[in-house]
């Protein structure tokens, strides 16, 4: 087993199979969207022809939405997956958020939650796409003052309830829309086992080979739920032992299409790293601090044939890169090709 090549293929970072951003997001189940600007490249680089305009179209029309869902952080999900994933993940997300609120000595009683949610809903409905500043202004008009931290919790709880999701894509600011207006009403509630099976299948299909610990970390679910999800897949998933660990692979795992000599300019918080605990497969422990710190801050990274070997600057002119692996013999032509792909994405 070549875990690096297999991850590249199934993450759509090598020989991508999809034309449209929404197809990529659905395949990946959820894509980390912590960095508002770079989440666009995280999706687009997994398509056959990366295009910033194609991403914006998918986002603005609600084919892709952004919300807090797993591990208390931002993710992108496809409209077709939104409702069943919200049902599956929201209870744990709410419990996690309430725990954070308690640690910050913040208590939001039910009557306040209902009152503020009504204001958020009315403001968003009136504007179609509302910013956090719009919410602050609406509160001010009702003689309500609230610090930014508390308001963020209210917005997050509105997301968990299926009331709010992302609105139109702006260059720098996040916006919010009424979820039912953006995505459409749910048709029916998905059985929990069916949702868990679908969730598990999408994770391993897009991130294989991956361990149980990887899945637990990424999903934010309990270990028992993750084990149950694997059990529900039955013979469609199997284990392979590699380098002292058991990895799961699905029966439709991609293994062909990997070619050597390709650089990837990977955005911060990308699923190539954040989707696993077993990051040592592609990132030497010696250089871990170059990719992320212990506080969960992830940097833009460069991979050569899937192995993390450097950093790059996505918001500075020209191909500004720095390599930290001494064994890397830099192919400037291949590196420039990767940079040009990123430039074309921004222009299209």
Structure description:
- The chain is α+β, with helices and mostly antiparallel strands and 348 residues long.
- It has three domains: 3-183, no CATH class; 192-250, Winged helix-like DNA-binding domain superfamily/Winged helix DNA-binding domain (Arc Repressor Mutant, subunit A), CATH 1.10.10.10; 263-347, no CATH class.
- It is 46% helix and 14% strand.
- It has helices at residues 3-10, 21-28, 39-44, 52-60, 79-103, 110-127, 132-141, 148-160, 179-183, 192-207, 212-219, 223-233, 271-274, 288-291, 332-347, and strands at 31-32, 64-68, 74-78, 130-131, 164-166, 175-178, 237-242, 245-250, 263-266, 301-304, 307-312, 321-323.
- It has a four-stranded antiparallel β-sheet with strand order 9-10-11-12. Strands 1-3-2 form a three-stranded antiparallel β-sheet. Strands 4-6-5 form a three-stranded antiparallel β-sheet.
- A hairpin with a 2-residue loop joins strand 7 (237-242) and strand 8 (245-250).
- The longest helix is centred in the first third of the chain and has 25 residues, at 79-103.
- The two termini are 37 Å apart.
- The model has no long low-confidence stretch (mean pLDDT 95).
